[in-house]
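seq:
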Amino acid sequence: MNGWRRWWEAWTSRAVVPLTPADRERYFRIAGVARTVAIAVLGGAFMWFVRDEPTWFLALTAVIVFPGTVVTWVMIRRSGVLAPHVWLCDLLCLAAFAAVVPELFLVSLLTSLAVLVFCAITLRRTTTFALCLVAVVAMGLAAAAHPTREDVLAASLFPLAIAAVVMPTQLSAHVLQRSIDFNTRIADALNVALFESTGVAGRPTTMHHLYAPTKRRFPTRISEEQWLDILHPDDRPVTDEIDAAVSAGQGYHVRYRQLIERLGEYRWIEEIGHVEVDGDRVIVQGMTRDITDTVVAEQQLQRLDLMADSIEVSVSVLRLVDPDDPTSLTVVKENRKAKEVDGHSHEGMRVIDFNRHAFDTERHRGLGHRMAEVAAGAPAFRIADAHLRLHGEERLFSVVCSPLPDHHCVVVMQDVTDLWHARSELERLAYVDTLTRLPNRTRCRDAIAAAPVGSLLLVVDLDRFTDVNEAFGHTCGDEMIVEVARVLAEAPEGVVVARLGGDEFALLVPPGTGQRDELVARVFQALSLPVQLPNGLMLQASASMGITTKTRPDTPADELLRQADVALRRAKQYRNTHEFYDPRNDTSAPHRMMLLGELRRALTSGELELHHQPAASARTGQICSVESLLVWRHPSLGTLSARELTEMVSLSNLNADIVVHSLREAVRHHTRWQQQGFTVPVSINVEGATLHDQALVDRMIRIITESGLPRHTVGLEIAERQLRLGSPDCRESLRRLTDAGFWLTIDHYGTGKTPFSALRSSYVNAVKLDYVTIGEFVPSDETLFDAMTVVMHRLGLTIAAGGADDERSFGWLVDHGVDQVQGTIVGPLMDVDEMLAFLGSPRPLPVAR
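struct:
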């Protein structure tokens, strides 16, 4: 099938070799004229020689021969070429003329040779060869019809004439075609069109396109009027520029917009012309190319330049000329503000030439080296406080450096010196008490929020301070406040001392500062000394103190201040004493009663959600268990923490319902994780009262049995202070729960009074050390802590610990025998979906033995 298609295409216009549009037009116009003349002359001669033949023969000959002139111009006008089958018909007709009229043999032979020469120039090699073969055979047959010596000799020499004339012509045409193909490919690659325009009197009239890219279809020739029609109206003045250059015999380089009808849009064109003047004759040769993308990019760059110049920050584009030499970092572009930094433009200069200190590691943190690294492909960096010296003055700059392609980077700098001074002053006014120069209440709240778990908050209130104001005046009272502040400011290093307002102060004591009672005693001892005022008056101060402990990392600062204030109010009843916050004595939470009334509704409406915090194995560093805590997503108050919810449950009669709900949710969540391939045990927290409710224990055993989960998949955590191991009911419940497959853990171990001997036969599997208890061992009593872990392991108990919020605490617990570690460094409290994602993408822990 393909062979027949190739044979058919060899006789169609597809067999015409690629020519430049101008050359194709010229060749085939000449061929059309020559064919018309040949038909007229040879046809007329043939009719003359056969004039004695019958009329019908003459009429038939005229019908066959003379319409060929019309066909010639119709084909040229329609397709621009004469297809090979036309020349095939001509060769056959010439052979027929020679056969019928011997007198026309030599003329027909020479005309056939001329046809073959033209075909050798315009047709492919195979088609030309086929036409040569047809001509030789046809002329041989014509000579055989009248075998005169001259005709036979001419027919015999005809192949030699073809070989001598047609074949070299074919070779030359092939070289020309290769040149045309090469130039066309170059035009395609460069997206340029080559043209030639001729005219007289210094004005070109017609443009002929020699080569054009395939993506841009140009007409073979275009007149000046046609060119003006597709020129953008706003670009008409470019014609005057071209005419002036042509009239002066000079080349030109212009840009204009031209309508591309195929796309239906105007495109930017760049035209470069070379002018040659020969008397009145003008020849312009040149090229055009589509530069729309370039112009759009230039316009975008211009807009970016305007935008960059309009902003009040320094923007510079740098280029790393030599990737192996950081000092080759060169300024390519600067905006207006960058030039105003030191009053000079540095475009084209190396950074080291105008700022040699930029590569000073000690002074400027190696800013030049870091920018060179970014230009070489390193990630972006930001420096908030880079010190640069300008005009002999040290200034503070914010620096942002981001990578750009081709070893470039952009540097954005902003002078923030004045802003920094203003911010420092505002911070001083916003966070410092103007009377005592101590941190004020706002700064204290920030410090409390950032304080680690286990920190103590002491709120101190002077006793009978109102009496001092009334007796000696407010000036004397202020002096007393200042003196008390001076005394409290001598607290141990790390303690934050703040004035909350009036005669109230706060001391925030981080863990590890010392024993709690010792710190309280030192504060009272300092305040017990007589206070001498600047006016010489000697006063005796006394104070009451409320103390609370930060037990959870997410406890709000205002809540801790409220708790300390609750304890302070109790201490003020006795004066010159201190009280620790006790939730059981906290009647100042008005929303508590409201929440207790809504708790049952929350249980049935799905507002109580089980969240999970992972624990890691100290041996492998992998997640080994999950502690699950209920949180309350209140529709108006937001999320209430597990600690708040636990306190409310202890005050309600819903403990059994809460435990059952938590257990069912834990089983459901674990089943979901198990379906995803994660078999991490899960534990829920239960109140100690649970162990004294045998009906509740029955329900718990039934749930775990019906779940079909393996032993120790679900665990229970009971706080030590709520555990009564000496109670028969408690021990029986522990035994039954153990037999049912629960993993039992004593939570917050160290806050109660459970002896080691009671653990031997308590049916528990693990103990979880309280983070406050751990803080009392670190770092002074490590030996005692190690001894305790040895005893626990001898009793067959797994040791877990919470509160590992950083690498130091995590590593300390691992090094001192803890089996499982829990804390924010392992993972925060998260909902079931977040926990599933966390299990699917575990992160390596910084410490694991």
